[in-house]
């Protein structure tokens, strides 16, 4: 049975997306990316030369 023109003209909206603002959606995506991305390795340190003083120790 063919669909009527009235049924075809109405856009379909997903049930879960109807009450979510774009701001909330973008915030959720940013939070998911921040949580799922592993931390970067620290940058490798350049070797010290004989002219540089040693770095001070840091308290734990």
Give an overview in words:
Residues 49-60 have a biased composition (Basic and acidic residues). The chain has 60 residues and is mostly helical. It has two helices and no strands. The chain has helices at 5-9, 22-36. The radius of gyration is 28 Å and the shape is rod-shaped. The mean pLDDT is 77.
Q: Approximately what portion of the residues adopt beta-strand conformation?
A: under 5%
Number of helices: 2
- Specify the structural class: mainly alpha
How much helical structure, as a percent, in the residues? 25-40%
How many β-strands, per DSSP? 0
User: What's the overall geometry?
Assistant: rod-shaped
Low-confidence stretches: none
**Whole-number average pLDDT?**
77
Region (Disordered): 33-60
Biased composition (Basic and acidic residues): 49-60
Write the layout of secondary structure elements.
Layout: H1 5-9, H2 22-36
Summarize the structure.
By secondary structure, the protein is mostly helical.
Q: Any key phrases for this structure?
A:
60 residues, mainly alpha, 2 helices, rod-shaped
